[in-house]
Amino acid sequence: MNRFGDLTMSFKKETPLANAAFWAARKGNLALLQLLLNSGRVDVDCKDSLGSTTLMVASYYGHKECVRELVLQGADINLQRESGATALFFAAQQGHNDIVKFLFEYGASTEFKTKDGGTALLAACQYGHMRVVETLLKHGANVHDQLYDGATSLFLAAQGGYLDLIRLLLSSGAKVNQPRQDGTAPLWIASQMGHSEVVRVMLLRGAERDATRSDGTTALLKAANKGYSDVIEELLKFSPTLGLLKNGTSALHAAVLGGSAKAVALLIEAGADPLLRNKVVCFCFKIVRPLKLLGKSQSLNESLRRNS
């Protein structure tokens, strides 16, 4: 999901010539853009009804020469559109590192936020633009930036499964256990998305294996429900809770309800109790038995014979 929104442009420009300038910035038509700006009849900071400028448009679409022309003609680098986004934000979001570097040369700031708290760093992390993130951090971006829902740069990188970026953020001081407001930690979101290598790195860097979000679910429970056996295997190396959680269920219950025979087998092999009751008095073993009778998984059958 696009957390920050696309560069939607309004067709309501200040003048017909301004409309032509926006078109030139979008298409990268430097000659036309220069002609319009040099005519003296187009404001270099002309806006559409959403507050977008030609510099934002050129930055979004990666047209560095147009960006250069606009800046040299006096465009305000740090103007914000209605959403709060700047030219730097859009260049970072789209991974245009050369434009990001150029904008910094002329005074771009990393401090501006969108209406949901988004910054250039958060946008770059959401889309996995590692080189851009390196540039932003070098120029003072705050690795602890958060959206207003609490999501951090590390959280967004974990959600996307960007392993090298995650290593960079952790080495830059990102907090591995910093959750969103709903309690969802980076480890939890990585487990939900099935990013086993990310899960491994986070656990090795001190991620709390049994951290729960507001609904009481853990990373293991979510991975079990999704049937992500690779993630389950990584989590089991760090001895997470296999019994009932505070929300009254267990990872094994979740695996059974999710229908993954391999996930069930892994959990039972690790010591999960198939006779454990959840708060609605449901035996894991009673749900698993149909899987056994159907012969869906040899490993599940073997685990059940040993543990039931």
UniProtKB/TrEMBL annotation:
Keyword Repeat in the entry? The reply is: yes
Q: Where are the ANK repeats?
A: 50-82, 83-115, 116-144, 149-181, 182-214, 247-279
Which PROSITE patterns does the UniProt entry name for this protein? ANK_REP_REGION, ANK_REPEAT
Pfam families the record matches = Ank, Ank_2
Q: Which UniProt keywords apply?
A: ANK repeat, Repeat
Highest taxon above the source species: Eukaryota
Q: Does the keyword Repeat apply?
A: yes
> This protein is called what?
Ankyrin repeat domain 29
Q: Which organism is it from?
A: Podarcis muralis (Wall lizard)
